[in-house]
Design a protein that fits this description.
The protein is α+β, with helices and mostly antiparallel strands and about 200 residues long. It is built from 3 helices and 4 strands, in the order αββαββα. This is Type IV pilus assembly protein PilN.
Length: about 200
C-alpha cells in the first residue's frame, strides 16, 4: 500500500488562501480609505460652499439692515417735515382766522352789546359780555346765524347784573367758526362768503 503525504499540499493551499485573504483585505482597506477620503472631500466642499453662501448672505443682510435704517430715518424725517408743514399751515390759517373773527364780531355786534371776553378753542369761540336787554342778545344770535363766517350760536347763560349802577344782562355764549370750503367742494376756489351770497 502506497502512502501519500498530503500535508505539504494542504499547507500550500492554506498559504494561498491566506495571501488571497490579506490581498482582498488590503484592497478593501484601500477602497474604504478612498471612499472615506472622497466622502470627506465632497462633504468638505459642500461645507466650504455653504460657508461662502452664509457669508454672502450675512453681508447682504447687513447691507439690507443699513438700507432699512436709512429708510426708517427718511420716514421719520418725512413725518417730521409733514408735522411741521401742518403746524405752519395751521398757524397761517389761525392767524388769518383770528383777524377775520375779530372783524366779523365787530361787524355783527348790535348796539347795546359789549364783549368782555373772547376765547377760541379750535372752531368754538366762547363769548362773554353785557347787553342792555335780552332782545339785544337775541339780535346778536340772529346776526351770527346770518354771518358767512360764524354759525350755530348757543346761549349758555344770561342773568341780570348791576354794573356801575346800571342794570345790564350778563351773558355767556358759544359760536362756531365756519371753516373755508376746500377747492374741490362746490365751485373751484369758492369761499363760504360766496356760498352765502349764492344762497341769498
Amino acid at each position: 500500500m502506497i502512502r501519500i503525504n498530503l500535508l505539504p499540499h494542504r499547507e500550500e493551499k492554506r498559504r494561498a488562501r491566506r495571501q488571497q485573504f490579506f490581498a482582498l483585505l488590503g484592497m478593501v482597506s484601500v477602497l474604504a480609505g478612498l471612499v472615506v477620503f472622497l466622502g470627506f472631500t465632497v462633504i468638505g466642499g459642500y461645507i466650504d460652499s455653504q460657508n461662502d453662501k452664509n457669508e454672502f448672505l450675512k453681508q447682504e443682510i447687513a447691507t439690507l439692515n443699513k438700507q432699512i435704517d436709512q429708510i426708517k430715518r427718511l420716514k421719520e424725517q418725512t413725518q417730521a417735515l409733514l408735522a411741521r408743514k401742518q403746524v405752519i399751515e395751521s398757524l397761517q390759517r389761525d392767524r388769518a382766522e383770528a383777524t377775520r373773527l375779530l372783524t366779523e364780531l365787530a361787524r355783527q355786534m348790535p348796539e347795546g352789546v359789549y364783549l368782555r371776553s373772547v376765547k377760541q378753542e379750535g372752531v368754538r369761540v366762547s363769548l362773554g359780555g353785557y347787553a342792555q336787554s335780552n332782545a339785544r342778545v337775541s339780535t346778536l344770535m340772529r346776526n351770527f346765524d346770518a354771518s358767512p363766517w360764524l354759525e350755530k350760536p348757543q346761549l349758555v347763560e344770561i342773568k341780570a347784573v348791576t354794573v356801575d349802577k346800571r342794570r345790564l344782562n350778563e351773558f355767556t355764549m358759544n359760536v362756531f367758526i365756519r371753516r373755508e370750503a376746500q377747492p374741490d367742494a362746490g365751485k373751484p376756489g369758492a369761499k363760504p362768503a360766496d356760498a352765502a351770497k349764492d344762497r341769498k
